[in-house]
Recover the amino acids of this structure.
């Protein structure tokens, strides 16, 4: 019964309501003259069994509908449990992992930068001791090390990408919790509050479009805009 | 020439400071967001390099606040950020940013923009 399609459930419910309406109409139609009706019933009790038969079928349909509704409520409780599991456990775990990745890349980036700085100092020492012999090589090496350092910008950009992913997951969690609250407001009140406060203002410190790709093309757009605005300002 | 480098990422601050040292600018002050930057800003700072997206106070809000101060109206500001949508760049320049670098950048781009700033490019504040 719990697995009955919603359309069948709706059909049964509508059928039950129609029977109730019919019965009420019959009762209402006769109620304007109840005393007379009662007298007629006493004199001629034959219509009563028909109404009882009708009400009996209404009762059966209502019992059937009640069982269906209880089955549906059982399904909703199961759905709520699934939503609770997804919203509260899986998404929180994913969010925690994203934060962990962000922290780990920061630590790794710091270690690499330390190494590069030490290497640059060594190159400088080398440059002082062999200034006449390997100047070109040393200059190239220094340039290469600075290029590697420039590559470390990935840490800031991936950090922003992770922050964006985290905010999307938090938003999804809030939405799932809102749906779950429809089924059981008492169970999800506190969790919804936590989810709502956990992400406040997060969008201020990351760019949702942060990317390591097409840097030259994007820089060209920036140069063009700045140049146009500067020219316009000079003309004014 | 003294620089103020503002970025919430310690990694980015180190990259920028090292790049500045590479081109001869060794005097740098650092700040993690706009609020801290307003606190550490002094009139002897010659160039400000700021990120946009930061907790506390964003780079754009910092520049607006800076331009309100009598000692912050003329100091050149270079925005270094991942934001590259045209409207964002317009917004930054209107707030008072003098020039704009999109991350990831090369040391050559940084040098080029600083040279342009120090050649006297005025800020557009609207």
């Amino acid at each position: 019964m719990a697995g009955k399609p919603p359309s069948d459930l709706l059909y049964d419910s509508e059928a039950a309501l129609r029977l109730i309406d019919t019965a009420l109409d019959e009762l209402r139609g006769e109620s304007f003259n109840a005393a007379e009706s009662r007298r007629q019933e006493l004199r001629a009790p034959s219509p009563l069994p028909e109404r009882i038969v009708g009400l009996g079928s209404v009762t059966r349909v209502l019992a059937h509908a009640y069982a269906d509704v209880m089955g549906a409520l059982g399904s909703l409780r199961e759905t709520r449990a699934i939503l609770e599991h997804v919203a509260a456990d899986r998404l929180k775990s994913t969010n925690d992992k994203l934060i962990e990745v962000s922290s780990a890349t920061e630590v790794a980036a710091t270690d690499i930068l330390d190494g590069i700085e030490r290497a640059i100092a060594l190159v400088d020492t080398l440059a002082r001791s062999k200034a006449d012999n390997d100047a070109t090589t040393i200059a190239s090496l220094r340039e290469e090390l600075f290029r590697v350092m420039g590559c470390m910008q990935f840490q800031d950009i991936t950090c922003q990408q992770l922050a964006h992913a985290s905010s999307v997951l938090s938003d999804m969690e809030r939405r799932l919790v809102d749906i779950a609250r429809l089924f059981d407001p008492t169970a999800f009140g506190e969790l919804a509050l936590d989810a709502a406060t956990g992400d406040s203002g997060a969008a201020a410190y990351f760019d949702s479009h942060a990317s390591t790709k097409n840097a030259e093309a994007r820089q060209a757009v920036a140069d063009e805009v700045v140049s146009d605005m500067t020219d316009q300002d000079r003309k004014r | 020439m003294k620089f103020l480098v503002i970025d919430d990422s310690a990694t980015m601050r180190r990259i920028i400071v090292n790049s500045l040292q590479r081109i001869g600018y060794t005097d740098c002050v650092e700040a993690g967001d706009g609020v801290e930057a307003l606190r550490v800003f002094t009139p002897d700072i010659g160039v400000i390099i700021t990120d946009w997206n930061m907790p506390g106070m964003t780079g754009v809000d910092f520049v607006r606040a800076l331009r309100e101060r009598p000692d912050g109206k003329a100091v050149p500001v270079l925005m270094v950020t991942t934001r590259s949508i045209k409207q964002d760049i317009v917004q930054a320049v209107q707030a008072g940013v003098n020039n704009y670098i999109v991350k990831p950048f090369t040391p050559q781009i940084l040098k080029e923009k600083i040279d342009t700033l120090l050649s006297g490019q005025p800020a557009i504040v609207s």
